Fold this protein.
Amino acid sequence: MGQLNAGIVPVTPFQQNCTILFDQDEKTGVVVDPGGDVDRILATLKDNSIAATAIWITHGHIDHAGGAMDLKEALGVDIIGPHKDDRSLLANLENQAKRFGIADAVRNCTPDRFLTEGETVSFGEHLFEILHCPGHAPGHVVFYNRAANFAHVGDVLFRGSIGRTDLPGGDHAALIRSIKEKLLPLGDDIGFLCGHGPGGRFGEERRTNPFLID
């Protein structure tokens, strides 16, 4: 098994971190949260000789799932995730897009498989545990790789901040519970990537994130 690596492709006007997780040696991987700019994602895969075996979705917001169906058709792979509680969000992506004036770039998303807490997903020998972390979106999931001390947290947690909870289905109390009861107990040394901006480590957020300090 080669080293687990990650590359970021900023997509959409929201500058969302579409993430390519891949095995350094085998050059296989997955695309996490292809919100749009599918041509750019495909070019990145090609330029780095990475074969994507699946698309993983953390949650059903437009900047994370808006390009998933186009990418699925281009790659011929399945869309996996998020939790079924985001089904209605995924079915209304095109309506969301109209409000932002980007309707031509977005399609409603129908995952091939929803995920539940305790399941696992993988590529090659890289295994990720599924954590259901509602609050930013009802069906938000986090992908946690225990062997690599790494988590992709989507929009649950940011460096110095947390996901917004003023969108449909948002719940501030639920988000704080997700972070404090599911993410932080994994350990201070867990490194994370998120949906916007730079990643970090759970320990630093536990100590300094103003939203998490009691």
In short: The chain is about 25% helix and 25% strand.
